[in-house]
Amino acid sequence: MTNCFCSVPGCSCGARKQPYLSYHSFPTDPDQRRQWIHAIRRDEGPDFCIKTGSTFVCSRHFTLEDFVSGSSISRLRSGAVPSLFCTGL
């Protein structure tokens, strides 16, 4: 995952520059995937399409409560939706 970037508009995070962040693939469940797309204010189309294994949202867009506690890796809880969108990340 050394060549991944965050898909949130305005976020310039990438695994090479910010290896300490975690990068999360879009859910495969169609309803939850739509929630993520809506939350990050994107539309699937010619300018944005979700490719399994290469379209990510970085951990800066999730609250601490969105993560499974006690896990050795940064794993999202089921149903977590990106909700933090500060400019200049």
UniProtKB/TrEMBL annotation:
The cross-references to InterPro entries, in alphabetical order and at most eight, read: THAP1/10, THAP_Znf, THAP_Znf_sf
Q: What GO molecular-function term can you cite, just one?
A: zinc ion binding
Question: What is the protein's major site of localization?
Answer: nucleus
UniProt entry keywords in alphabetical sequence = Cell cycle, Coiled coil, DNA-binding, Metal-binding, Nucleus, Transcription, Transcription regulation, Zinc, Zinc-finger
Q: Which GO terms describe its biological process?
A: endothelial cell proliferation
Q: Where is the THAP-type domain?
A: 1-85
Give the subcellular location: Nucleus, Nucleoplasm
Give an example GO cellular component term for this record.
Answer: nucleoplasm
Give the top-rank taxon of the lineage listed in the UniProt record for this protein: Eukaryota
Family as reported in the entry's similarity comment: Belongs to the THAP1 family.
Function, in words = DNA-binding transcription regulator that regulates endothelial cell proliferation and G1/S cell-cycle progression. Specifically binds the 5'-[AT]NTNN[GT]GGCA[AGT]-3' core DNA sequence and acts by modulating expression of pRB-E2F cell-cycle target genes.
The protein in question is named THAP domain-containing protein 1
